[in-house]
Structures are given as structure tokens and as C-alpha cells.
Design brief:
single chain, 161 residues, alpha/beta, Nucleotidyltransferase, domain 5, five-stranded mixed sheet, 7 strands
Length: 161
Amino acid sequence: MARRSSSGLTDKVEINMTPMIDVVFQLMSFFMCTLKVVSPEGDFDIRMPIAAAAAAAPDDQQVPPVRVKLSAAPDGSLAAIAMNGTPVADFDELRKRIIGLVGADSGPNSLAEKTEVEFDADYALKYANVVKAITAVSGKVENGQVVELIRKIKFTPPKKG
């Protein structure tokens, strides 16, 4: 009970804040020590274009973009592949034509680094076929080594109908 003074008011009871501050610092140190920093989920090799001069001279080694048309059958399976308007039998032949176009070397100044592939896939085409086409033009594995072909890949906007 609080004591009453001669004026009839109660004396204030002082609360010692030192133990409360100690507990707060202990909690902070606990959470700082148990914090686990999560590494990023994926390391994507994304290269953003650098702002170029307005009147840049065209590169003699620049290859026009390669257009790959993927046509779908009514059930969503792959009906046909065409590269620059020429029919292609399958994904292996597509890879061979890309290698014939850009060559087998994949250095920093190679033709493969400068070539761009644009995919035009039908809206109803199953996604697995698009992935196979990307795999066919982007590289292959030979003797346990990855041989990169084309890195610049873009897609035309999907069209229904």
C-alpha cells in the first residue's frame, strides 16, 4: 500500500526501468544473432540495353533478327516450325540451322552474341514446345560442357484467334 502524506495525497511508486531496458537489449541481440539472411532465389543473366548515341553507325557484323514461327495444331501440339519463312522439320534441325547461321564459337564478339531470335508462337501452343524451341536456339551440351548459341531472345505479343 502507498503511504499517505500529511496532505492526503499518495506518494508515487517508482518503477525501475533498468531491468526492462536489459530485456529489450537481450531480445534485440537474440534476434540479430538468429537472423538468417536468405540468398536470392535465382541469378538471372539479364543484360539491359545501354543508351546509345542517336546517330550510331550500323554494325557490319550485325545479323538481322531470326524469326521462328511455331504453329499449333487444334489440340495445342506443335504443328509446324518455320525459321525466316522456311519450314523446319524438328527442333534438332532448328538447332543445326542456327549453328549454320552463327557458327559454333560463342565468344564476346561472336556472331552468336549479336544475333537475336524472335519467337512467334500461336496462342494455343502448349508451353513445353516453346521451351524446346528456346532450348534449341540457346545452346546445347557437348561432352559435359555447355555450348551457348544465342542469348538474345524475344517474343511477339500473343494473338488470340
